[in-house]
Amino acid sequence: MQTIFSIAVDALAYGMVLFVISIGLSVTMGLMRVVNLAHGAFAMIGGYIASYAARDLGLGYGLAVLIAVFGTIVIAVPIERLLYRRIYGAPELTQVLMTIGITFCIIGIANYVFGPTLKTMPLPPGLRGSVDLGFRSIATHRLFAIACGLAVAVGLWYAIEKTAFGVKLRASVDNAAMAAALGVRTEIVYAVSFAVAVGLAALGGVVGAELLPVEPYYALRYMVTFLVVVSVGGAGSIPGALLACLLLGGIDTAGRYLMPEFGEFFFYLAVIAIVCVFPRGLAGRTR
Amino acid sequence: MKRTILAALAALAMSGAACADTIKIGVIGPFSGPFALQGKNFKAGIDAYMAMNGSKVGDDDIEVIYRDVPQPDPAQSKALAQELVVKEGVQYLAGFYFTPDAMAVTPLLEQANVPLVIMNAATSAIVTKSPLAVRTSFTLWQTSTPIAKVTKDAGVSKIISVVSDYGPGVDAENAFKQGFEAVGGEIVEAIRMPLSTNDFSPIMQRIKDSGAEGVFAFLPSGPTTLGFVKAFNENGLKDAGIKFFAPGDLTQESDLPALGEAALGIRTTFHYAVSHDSPENKAFVEAAAKAIGNPAELSFPAVGAYDGMHVIYKMIEATGGEQDAAKAVDAVKGLSWTSPRGPVSIDPESRHITQNIYLREVAKADDGTYYNKEIQTFEKQGDPGLAALK
């Protein structure tokens, strides 16, 4: 019994970290229809900025997170205007080639500027150490990641489903020409959504840094995991992504505990099974 | 057809080399990509040696030509080695961070009349594949066997072994198992984790549930090490008094700033620590730090490369610059010298390096940086892995 609880706690923590990092990609892929392979690169930029702010400039953790999120957006906005704008609505292959190119450029720049070694971020005293849950202990920053994940899920769901901006976004996604004809400034809607998605990537990069350490190849190393989460959850669906993260986190954690020698066999077996039954993901929207 | 062309060109290269006064050394390693730091260390070690000993042996100029194999890729490694031999006319092949890359090159050596000096690749079997292969690094058997005794001496008799599921990981597991059972210890469980593991919490839970008093771990140096060590502390294993033992790959110097406090007190055995206290090492670290640019990036492949260059220089001296691979290798059999890591020699039988293995503990220096502090020396260790192969 204790073992089951223990696996459940680990699965929840791992799943939520995955969620925070992947949800931005789900937004770009599902709502903006851009296969953004550079998502991991933006998460990495966030991690680097936070690490630089906290370690080299000695700023507080909260401030470092804010600087990371907004700094990454500031870097990403010109990239959106100059590069991404050309590939909205373009065939998927064009998008993949463009974004993977951007990823390699960012890796090269990160390697040149920050060097190839691992970068860490000092945690504030409140997030260090571990909390005793009675039957086991769990790292405090994992609890923080779980809280971040829940906050992001609720916030995004509210913004997309309940606000005027969400209405415009959904309209632009479903029929850009018609939305524009009705007076929606689609390019602004796209730019804002892109900025939000990148900001979420950066937040994920920072919050998940304890699990996925920041180094130049971060951008490629975890790419497959992010894409798997989005395709299993259904691109653009927040509940779908949440469900996918918890499910995959659970399967991965249980498999790793019970039969580590099978590696990621169960993880990918589950992915294959889910994609076979739900080709558009668990909560995918039909086009 | 390909063979004859290769042979003809190799012969041509040979006749050319006899009167040439530039001797070329081809170095293959990861100079770009995720392992670029290790390639950078190769280059730093080689540059340091040439800065300290000159770029001439006798009348001959030495030229080093680098070729990049970013990830383990035997086919590419072999192709580049062929290109180096045939087109560039190199007299020596050196480098090799990954075992498969070195293995792929061994069949070429005899025909090309070129010795191979391995500066890192750490699987025992490589030197048995060709009589022209010499190794100046270490093997996992060599570094993992002494830690078994250390573990027992620390009063731990039940241990769980946790390794990454790939060649060197399995080597480390076997070496530790053999050593530990020989001193009467018990391995309660042996776990092999997939290389791509990010979240180690479930593994930590397994370790806790196994009832072991200590853990023996091996992971390739880099991002996963950090996750593993952090998970070890955060899941309360360190506080529960479970002891942590590993070969030195886990606490390589370039990872220590990131590992920081989490690694404090971890005991590892390895052939080289940048902090090693000797005049030879001081001079080496100074020259290598200058070559690499950032001293914090200096790590163990640099010393393998440095000693590899020493062996090649001795080979060139012995052959007078003529291309004669068999004579060159014979000349360094039994060669002994004082390396930055301490006294070393080339075992005439296996052509692998015999060296001291040090027990180290991660400690904090006065200036707040972390380093591997040597606390015990196991003198003149050979490679037990070769005996295990038979």
TrEMBL record, chain A:
<feature type="transmembrane region" description="Helical">
    <location>
        <begin position="143"/>
        <end position="160"/>
    </location>
</feature>
<feature type="transmembrane region" description="Helical">
    <location>
        <begin position="96"/>
        <end position="114"/>
    </location>
</feature>
<keyword id="KW-0812">Transmembrane</keyword>
<keyword id="KW-1133">Transmembrane helix</keyword>
<dbReference type="InterPro" id="IPR052157">
    <property type="entry name" value="BCAA_transport_permease"/>
</dbReference>
<feature type="transmembrane region" description="Helical">
    <location>
        <begin position="188"/>
        <end position="212"/>
    </location>
</feature>
<dbReference type="GO" id="GO:0006865">
    <property type="term" value="P:amino acid transport"/>
</dbReference>
<keyword id="KW-1003">Cell membrane</keyword>
<feature type="transmembrane region" description="Helical">
    <location>
        <begin position="265"/>
        <end position="283"/>
    </location>
</feature>
<feature type="transmembrane region" description="Helical">
    <location>
        <begin position="12"/>
        <end position="31"/>
    </location>
</feature>
<keyword id="KW-0813">Transport</keyword>
<dbReference type="Pfam" id="PF02653">
    <property type="entry name" value="BPD_transp_2"/>
</dbReference>
<feature type="transmembrane region" description="Helical">
    <location>
        <begin position="37"/>
        <end position="54"/>
    </location>
</feature>
<dbReference type="GO" id="GO:0022857">
    <property type="term" value="F:transmembrane transporter activity"/>
</dbReference>
<keyword id="KW-0029">Amino-acid transport</keyword>
<dbReference type="GO" id="GO:0005886">
    <property type="term" value="C:plasma membrane"/>
</dbReference>
<comment type="similarity">
    <text>Belongs to the binding-protein-dependent transport system permease family. LivHM subfamily.</text>
</comment>
<protein>
    <submittedName>
        <fullName>ABC transporter permease</fullName>
    </submittedName>
</protein>
<dbReference type="InterPro" id="IPR001851">
    <property type="entry name" value="ABC_transp_permease"/>
</dbReference>
<feature type="transmembrane region" description="Helical">
    <location>
        <begin position="224"/>
        <end position="250"/>
    </location>
</feature>
<keyword id="KW-0472">Membrane</keyword>
<feature type="transmembrane region" description="Helical">
    <location>
        <begin position="61"/>
        <end position="84"/>
    </location>
</feature>
UniProtKB/TrEMBL annotation, chain B:
<dbReference type="Pfam" id="PF13458">
    <property type="entry name" value="Peripla_BP_6"/>
</dbReference>
<dbReference type="InterPro" id="IPR028081">
    <property type="entry name" value="Leu-bd"/>
</dbReference>
<protein>
    <submittedName>
        <fullName>Amino acid-binding protein</fullName>
    </submittedName>
</protein>
<dbReference type="InterPro" id="IPR028082">
    <property type="entry name" value="Peripla_BP_I"/>
</dbReference>
<comment type="similarity">
    <text>Belongs to the leucine-binding protein family.</text>
</comment>
<dbReference type="InterPro" id="IPR051010">
    <property type="entry name" value="BCAA_transport"/>
</dbReference>
<dbReference type="GO" id="GO:0006865">
    <property type="term" value="P:amino acid transport"/>
</dbReference>
<keyword id="KW-0732">Signal</keyword>
<dbReference type="InterPro" id="IPR000709">
    <property type="entry name" value="Leu_Ile_Val-bd"/>
</dbReference>
<feature type="signal peptide">
    <location>
        <begin position="1"/>
        <end position="20"/>
    </location>
</feature>
<keyword id="KW-0813">Transport</keyword>
<keyword id="KW-0029">Amino-acid transport</keyword>
<feature type="domain" description="Leucine-binding protein">
    <location>
        <begin position="22"/>
        <end position="364"/>
    </location>
</feature>
